[in-house]
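User: Is it possible to get a 3D structure for a protein together with its bound compound? The compound here is P-hydroxybenzoic acid. I've pasted both below.
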Amino acid sequence: MIRERTQIAIIGAGPAGLLLAQLLRIAGIETIVLERQSRGYVEARIRAGVLEQGTVELIDEAGVGARMGREGLPHDGFDLAYDGVRHRIDLAHLTGGKRVMVYGQTELTKDLGDAAAEAGAPAIYDAADVSIHDADGDAPVVRYRRKDEDAEISCDFIAACDGFHGIGRRSIPESALKTFERIYPFGWLGILADVPPCSHELIYARHERGFALASMRSLTRSRYYLQCPIDERLENWPDARIWEELKVRLGPEAASAMTIGPAIEKSVAPLRSFVAEPMRWGRLFLAGDAAHIVPPTGAKGLNLAASDVRALSRAFIAFYKSGQSALIDNYSQTCLARVWKAVRFSWWMTQLMHKFGEGETFDARVQGAELSYLFGSRAASQALAENYVGLPFDGPT
Ligand code: APR
Ligand code: PHB
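Assistant: Yes, that's possible. Here is the predicted structure of the complex:
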C-alpha cells in the first residue's frame, strides 16, 4: 500500500479538476489529482467551446491563458435564426462591452495539463477504483489502484470534480442529498469538420424540422449540431445527409456560405438539466458536472464548472492563508445561487429553440411569439445577452 499525504485531494482531471489544482498550486496549496482515464483519452473528448468573460479572466488568473489569448476567437455577438431569418444579438452593445471567447474545452484542458506537467505536478492518470472515506470526519481519505498497486491519500479536503458519472456525488448519503432533473425528449447530433465556419459568429437556429447550431473551434475548423431523436443512431446520418439538413435548418444565407467536408468526429449526446444540493458534505466538495448538468444550448457547462472552481479555490485559500472558514461554509449556497440562474437560462434557451412535437402546436406558436418579441425588444435581447456573457459572480472578487 502506497501512503500519500496532501492538503486537497482532487478527483477528476477534466477542466474543473485541473483548473482547481492550478489555482491552488499557484497559491502554494498542495493537491493530488486522480483521473481514471489516460491523459490522451481526456484530451480527445470533444466538448464545448464558448467561454464567458469571467471564465477567461479566471483562466488568465490561473496563468494558463497565453494560448487562449493567441488562438481564441473573441465574439461580440451571435445570430438567432427563426425559420431561416437571422437576427443578431449584439452582446457587446447590449452588455456595455462584454463578449465571449470561442476556445475549445479540449484546448483548455491541454493547456492545464501542460501547466501541471511543467510544474512537476501532473495528475495521476489511469487511477482505478477511486473511493472516498471519512469525508464527514476530520481526516478524509481517498483510496485508488494504479498499476496493480493499492494507494491511499490522507488529506484535509476532497474536491470531487469527477463529472456526472463520477464517484463524488455518489459518496454522499442519499438522505443528505436532494437532486433535481429534467430530461429533454431529444438529443444533439454533433460533427467536427476541418472546414471554415459558415459565419464569423455562432448561429442558433429554430426551424420547423428542428434546432441547429453553427459553431467553430477556429477559422478552419467548424462544429455543427442538429437536434435529433433521443435514441438516434449515427448510421442514420451519413455526412451528406448532415450537411443537407444543416443547410435547410440554418437558412439560405448560411447554406450559401457553408463549406462541406468529411466529419472528423460525429456523436449523439442526450440533453438534461440536473442539480444536486448541497454541493458539500463534510469535507467533500462537488464542483462542475459532478454537481450539475445543463443542456448545451446556453453554452454554460464549462462556465459553471469554472464558476464553482473560482468559489472553491477562494474558499480553500482563505482557509489555509487566513484560517477563515466562512467561504468554505458558504460554498454550496454561493455556487447554487449562480448554478440555478444558469440552469434556468439553459432551460429557457432550450425551450425556445427546439422542436417539441409535430406540426402547428401551442409550443410552436409560443416559441414564434417569443422570438418575434425578442427580435423587437431591447429589454428582452438585453436579458438574453447578459445571461449569455455570464452573470456576475457571487461572493468575493
Ligand atoms: N475516478 C477518477 N476520475 C474520474 C472518476 C473516478 N471515479 N469518474 C470520472 N472521472 C473523471 C472523468 O474521466 C473526467 O476526466 O473526471 C473527469 C470529469 O471531467 P468532466 O466530465 O469534463 O467534468 P468537469 O471537469 O466538471 O467539466 C465540465 O465538461 O463534460 C463537459 O459539458 C461539460 O463543459 C462541461 C465540462
Ligand atoms: C460548441 O462550439 O461546441 C458549442 C457552442 C455553443 C453552444 C454549445 C456548443 O451553446
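The mean pLDDT is 97. The CA atoms of residues 85 and 333 lie 41 Å apart.
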